[in-house]
Records
---
Amino acid sequence: LTVLNLFVCEYTSSKLKFIQTLSWSLNFFGAFFILAAHEHYTIDVIVAFYITSRTFAYYHVLANSLAHKQRSSQELTWSWFPLFSYFEENVDSIIHNEYEWPWTPIIELVSRKYRIFVRLREERRKNKIK
């Protein structure tokens, strides 16, 4: 729940405050219901939230800082977060979020296929007439 919440808040547009607020609410309600169902101890849930949020924040701070490109900083990063160098090895600068409606590429693909279909249908009609 917490990782999903953090991803939603990090990668959605700042204009979508409703989705971010909903995500935080669902995260807290999920933690509450885990505690209410006696699935975990309270300290387990608090520690899990803390570790998850700090790891997420630490990774994104490292990814967004240009200092991790320096040799001494890379060695320090390797000791604290070994997979970071692997995940970010081909990234030269900060990658900015770009938002696009998810159905735009689908609409373009369908319209392209439809134009091909119409063109082929017209060619068949012309061949039948001749």
Note: The chain has a mean pLDDT of 80.
---
Amino acid sequence: MPLSPVFVKVSTPTKTRHYPTSRVEQPQRRRTHSTDDLASLITKPKTDRFGFLLENESEHGVKRRHSDTNKKISDPEKALVAKAAKQRALDKVTKRREKKWVNMIRSWEKNKNKKKHQQRILSRVRKGIPDKLRGAVWSLLGDVPNTIDFTKKGQYNELLLQAEMVGRGGRTDEDALVQVRDTIERDIKRTFPNHIMFKDLQEDRISEEEFDELLVSPTNTFDKNENEVAVVIYTKEEETPDLLNSAGGQASLRRVLRAYSMYDQETGYCQGMNFIVAMFLTFMTEEEAFWLLVFIMNDQPCNMRNMFGSDMSQSSQVLHVGSRLIEQFLPKLAKHLHRENVHISMYATHWLLTIYTTKFPFELVTRVWDCFLAEGWKIVYRIMLAILSVHERKLLKMDFEDILGFFRDVGQKAEADKLFEVAFKIQLKNKHVKKYEKEYLLQEKENKR
């Protein structure tokens, strides 16, 4: 049977020895260990500002890369001073933007239908929403507060209760729902595995034997503020995780995806949704994340539902539009890729279908979604064109194998500020996107005759 971690608070005062209540009393040992031994097991890992682990990798599988890694710094002290000055200037800009966003949030309901308000939103989201306010703004862009409080009040919990009953029989569609449940379960552990919220705790826990070895002898003394530690020990886990009561990021992700599979049983669940929902959960509650998922799937300007439907018809349309835009804005590169038999589906599928939530730095991902929630698909195509534009010269010198190898690692080369600067210089209009969407639909209609 699989094992799951249980966090047990262990008190270790000077005269009394405590074991977890679920364990059998053991004889005292003479061997002693300092609190540093235990602390080494439970030290809080270092993360970046988004919660991704910093040991060897950062942002969801993308290796850490510093622009100045290979540069020789002749004066380290001067470099530190310059870095500190740059950070102070950035903090000043951030505080100013936060103040503007707070004022906008306060008057959102009053002004949301005004053209001036909508124009101001577009202008500000393109500069990036401050991290502290991103969850609140995303919720407002998806009309989530009104959905939770009024139009769909209580429905999320009802859907979870329905999802909990899956696998217990009594439904005509039981087999299909069980299959969706099992697919979700497999994908959960693959979702942002190096994010502190979604990291698989099985990697970090210790066995009961190791726990025994590290229990502190009653002869040791502790500082008053250091006499409690959290230790992870093995316990048996049921075959199916407790949907309603499990804690942690993976549990929240499971609940949102399972609830959506009940809300929209025709779509159910499709790979890619897990990364989008996990991203939402880093900024908001799970109920907010659920209703924001409902919004992006079914409402303008995102309207992603047909990307994940059984026929995934919108996926083909998105790739067609992307290919035609490359021909329009980067004709030389388009011809080269065509000669090398490199189709857009070979490199841009995961860019476009998950809106960059996989294999790209999280700073870039969040900024793309700031714009996507406000203005829709245009930003998705802009970033695609910007990536290709930045690397066009290199790509033009490559053959088939080198091109595919380059695209596998292109996420590591992505710099948010640079790409957004390039992206907004591209003269892409909504009419271009609509033109190629209509072209695709006409082609499909002809093919069905």
Note: The chain has 21 helices and four strands.
---
Amino acid sequence: LALGPDGNLFSGSGDGAVRVWCGIDGSHIRTMQFDTDGVYSLTVGLNGSLFVGDFAGTVQVWRAMGSGSRHIVARNGSASAVTLCLSVTGTLYTGWDQEDYEDEDEGPAMGGVYIL
């Protein structure tokens, strides 16, 4: 779940869809279908760019909330992109969760910081 700069809410799902909801009355505004292995995490930039992390460990940025061009920001093929946080200065913080822990209490195995 992410809050956009216009007050709308964004939710991701396992089928690769991101749904946009009105932050005032909760009504559904639109659904954007992404070519991804299920949306695991998302965040929205101040300029409306949508960052989508998927189960396959890829983080993509979509310009203009899914209607424009996209590019890969980060990729970790052995872990899911479970957390995304975008600072107001444009730094993207990520966290990945590997499924093959020897000790399940270790938490996320790795993360990254990307200056956009």
Note: The chain has no helices and eleven strands.
---
Amino acid sequence: GVSVGEACVKIYEEMKMSRKYKYATFRVNEDLTEIIPDAVGEPDADFEEFVSKFPEKDARYGILDVDYEDDGCAKSRIVFIFWSPDGAPIRSKMVYASSKESLRRQFAGIMTEVQ
């Protein structure tokens, strides 16, 4: 299968511990052997910037730090996103779908996933 690059885990840990990034996207490298970072967003980045990082014709993974309120308390949670648009090549969709759990397992503490 496809391995998860150390840089991916480092980015997630920096998001979780110090909120260094608002979001990150990840892609499978050209050799289809490793998941690598694709883009990161500064802490003040907005949702539109995050969405713009997902290509129309290829799959990606993403994580987004979402702020919300629960009973008047400000909270945040990192959400995992699996992007696999209809226009993506079949092989790409298959590689991304079969590698998703490998990446997600490296991101300890993620509770929510969106496809």
Note: The first strand starts at residue 3 and ends at 4.
